[in-house]
Amino acid sequence: MRCAVSILVSLAASGALALPAPVQPRQHSDDQTHHTAADWNQGATTDFVIHPSCNATEVAQLRKGLHDALTLAEHAKQHILRYGNSSEHYRKYFGVAPSGEAIGYYERVINGDKGDALFRCDNPDGNCNQPEWGGHWRGSNATNETVICPLSYSTRRPLEQLCALGYTVAGMEANTYFGSDLLHRLYHMPAFGENHVEHFAEDYAGALELAKTNATYATHDSDILQYFALDVYAYDIAVPGVGCSGQATEAASSHGSSTSSVSAPPMSSQTATATNAGTAPDAAADAPTECHTHADGTQHCT
Fold it and tell me: I need a labelling partner for 177 at 20 to 30 A (CA). Which of 30, 39, 83, 159 fits?
């Protein structure tokens, strides 16, 4: 035993029997490359751009109207995300179409880059000289620009009045409110409508029919995107559980008719060129008549 102990002591003394070295933290080499996240969003425009031609009052009203447009789009998107394509309101306007496209076009307005959209208040193309024009998309003259004429500032309603003063979605124009009117105008600009959102239904009754017979087009129909946003906001938020849908038989004659069957603020007007689309026809009701021309030369009047 004494011999064994003596051997172990000798080995330890000589270093032949060594204890494990303590674990040391890993050291970063001086030449190690440090990666940082790319600033992929640099230069993004997150707010709508308003031209200097708009005075302080017009800017205030435009910003409020654009806020209302975002509010309508956001709730429409959230409603679809909650219920998919199964809710009564969704089936009413979009039929059995998959929900992705409608969600996408609302989201495009909400979070899409806004640098390629300009709202102006002057009259570069002369169309605001027509007494019943509320505004127009400048089309080939300036694809990314929309003019808001003085008539809009005196006739459009704020979203807080949704369902008030006898309004129903079926019975009055979709552009009664500044927010829904501007939503329509945004979809005319390629930055948001991507030259894909168009007019396929001619009026409210036509919108409901399109949802039943050709839902593929309903999810990128400009008017239907407005109708749905207004209807679900009215039912879910403005007058919860009640809303103000109205009946299809109330529906005002819209695009394709020269007169309006209800007394309502004027329809928005967009033009694809700088040339005047002609004198707007007389209205048979109290509401002024408006016309606008699309890129294919088709003129719509309300």
Answer: 83
